[in-house]
Amino acid sequence: FYSPVVSLDIRPGGYAVLTLQKEPVNSLDLSAWQALEAALDQLEADSSISGVIFASGLKRDVFSAGNDLMELYAPRTTEQRYTEFWEVSNRFLAKLHNSRLSTIAAIRGACPAGGCIIAMCCDHRVMSSQGSIGLNEVQLGIPVPKYWGMLMTRLIGQKAADKLLLTGKLATSQEAKQLGLVDELVPKDQLVSAAEAVMLKLVMLPSCAVAASKKSLRDDFCQDWIKYSKEEPAGAWKFLCQEDTLKTLEAALQRLSGNKN
Ligand code: CO8
């Protein structure tokens, strides 16, 4: 396995730290999702590995800015590419949620949309005390993907999830901790060591019992998710081609590149 944006560091104790480093903001394009899936497949196939921690290797405090907006902006892609992009990304996410491995997200800083769903697919979330997390699709003028919203609902309950999802609001680290969207807040320089301390406890649990329990709790959901990710792009593509959607995405793209100046 080799990827210019995903690296794996195998630690004593039988777990890996997977670092995502695609400057400047870990935006997730097709190749980034493919690299994440390949890395996960490799770790799962290795019986000496029991867990994986997801971390950001970026200079700035960003876990991931989520999907690369260029993969969603219809004039810059095609329906065929979008369909592949969607299937690969959601297959990876469902596999991650259903993985036999213990999984932890070490979230430094901003964690919108695609970053949030990676974190939500993990078993445990440690977050820096300065940051924001959530599914902000509505703010971008696009509907929140069905299974992404459903997973948030499973994590924090319907009322709290609806409030965030239907406004596209990002929760601050403190709000996320209160809602149970993340498990623990730590100063950013202690993030990976805090995640490792939890991982060392998780990998001590009887792994077959953990994997079997996870399967019975999550397998149906994840199989349905993979199935739906093959149907979802057709409707989503129509939405992405609507004039209103294009305008809102264009405004978001302008806002983002304007940030720099
Ligand atoms: N995709 C592509 N480029 C991005 C993205 C992105 N998601 N986010 C930021 N960038 C670019 C900016 O345009 C900028 O580029 P340049 O330097 O060339 O001008 C560069 O990255 C740096 O960005 P900022 O200046 O904004 O950096 P900051 O450190 O100030 O802020 C943030 C970092 C907080 C991460 C900020 O960039 C941000 O909020 N980004 C957007 C996050 C976002 O809204 N992501 C949602 C993506 S949508 C998604 O994941 C799910 C889609 C579901 C599809 C459903 C279809 C129907």
| Rounded mean pLDDT score | 96
Structural class: alpha/beta
Assess the beta-strand content as a share of residues. Answer: 15-25%
The CATH topology is given as 2-enoyl-CoA Hydratase, Chain A, domain 1
Q: Helical segment tally?
A: 9
Low-pLDDT runs = none
Query: At the fourth CATH level, what is the homologous superfamily?
Result: 2-enoyl-CoA Hydratase, Chain A, domain 1
Gyration radius, in Å: 17 Å
Count of distinct strands: 7
In whole angstroms, the N-to-C terminal distance is 38 Å
Provide the list of bound ligands, each named once: octanoyl-coenzyme A
CATH class reads Alpha Beta
Short description:
By secondary structure, the protein is of the alpha/beta class.
Spell out the key features of this protein:
261 residues, alpha/beta, 2-enoyl-CoA Hydratase, Chain A, domain 1, 7-stranded mixed sheet, 9 helices, 7 strands, globular, binds octanoyl-coenzyme A
Report what the structure shows.
This protein is 51% helix and 17% strand. It is of the alpha/beta class. The chain has one domain (6-188): 2-enoyl-CoA Hydratase, Chain A, domain 1 (Alpha-Beta Complex), CATH 3.90.226. Strands 1, 2, 3, 4, 5, 6 and 7 form a seven-stranded mixed β-sheet that branches. The longest helix is centred in the last third of the chain and has 35 residues, at 207-241. It binds octanoyl-coenzyme A. Octanoyl-coenzyme A (CO8) is lined by residues 24-25, 27, 60, 62, 65-70, 72, 110, 112-114, 136-137, 140, 142-143, 145, 236, 239-240, 256-257, 259-260.
